[in-house]
Amino acid sequence: MSMNGWPIIKLLPHKTNFQFVKYAKGFAILSAILTVAAIIGCFYPGLNLGIDFRGGASMEVAKPAGQVLELDKLRGSVSGLDLGDVQVQGIARRDTNLDDGSTAIVRFQVPSDQDQTAVVEKVESAISEAVGQVTYSGVSVVGSKVSGELLTNGVLALVSAVVLMFLYIAFRFPWQFGIGAVAGLLHDVALTFGLIVALRMEFSLNLVAALLTVIGYSMNDTVVVFDRLRENLRKYKTMPLRDVIDLSINETLSRTIITGVTTVMVLIVLAVFGGEALRGFSITLAFGVVIGTFSSIYVGAPIILLWGVDRSGGGKADAKPVKLGMASRP
Q1: Which of the four pLDDT bands, split at 50, 70 and 90, describes residue 193?
Q2: pTM of the model
Q3: Contacts for 233 with CB less than 8 Å, ≥ 6 apart
Q4: Cα 17 to Cα 146, 191, 246, distances in angstroms
């Protein structure tokens, strides 16, 4: 069956004529305010660092083969001890290498003013009382030095991804496009950090992975719009730049909506049924997809109007800079 035969696809118009640039100035102001607020929020009140970055302890908990370990009860028993961030994840048994639901790994924070051995014993006692007879193995404590190295590596991974995206845009598009891409990418990363701070989500390696995915998705969406814009600039050499931008966004709009909606639908299902371990990852990534779509329409492309763009191939912009929302349409 072809895509045109799907009832939902038929609801989307084949051709739209929305004037996106007309409202770009207002959205730019809103985006700037939210971006500044998000950056401030990263320092005050700051990120709620999880076990991966603050240090803590982990242990494997296993029931006899064939018996199911209730993860909700396991998580609740440890959470009730007020040890901060608690992570519980089902894993395969060591002896059979099969995931039969009988084994899980538990990670929790160890307060700096408490003895590590005493805290581990208290956790084991609470788990045994909640889920019955279990065995413990692989008990380890992550110190501040290791967690600090993980935080440093996580930050380096994010910075490296952003730099690589910048290099890709610089290689593929004119510098005017690069400014729009850089602004959109920084906007998406900052606002996603703002969501993490606002919801007080535990900032762990899972969220670093989500942020890296957001960076890739945002850049992919921006490149799709920029590719069409570059083609239309060559095709319509006398059309006003604002109109070419509107045309390019409209021509890629159906693709953007379909991709974004289907991705968010999957992430919503993952957030609802994926359990506590994947909820933060799913919410962060879903927000990143939405904000990445927004930035490709209202940040990346319209900002090119501020600089003009070269249509002649001579290396100079043949269109004068335009104030957003001020130029009239023919």
Answers
A1: very high
A2: 0.71
A3: 244, 309, 311
A4: 54, 28, 8
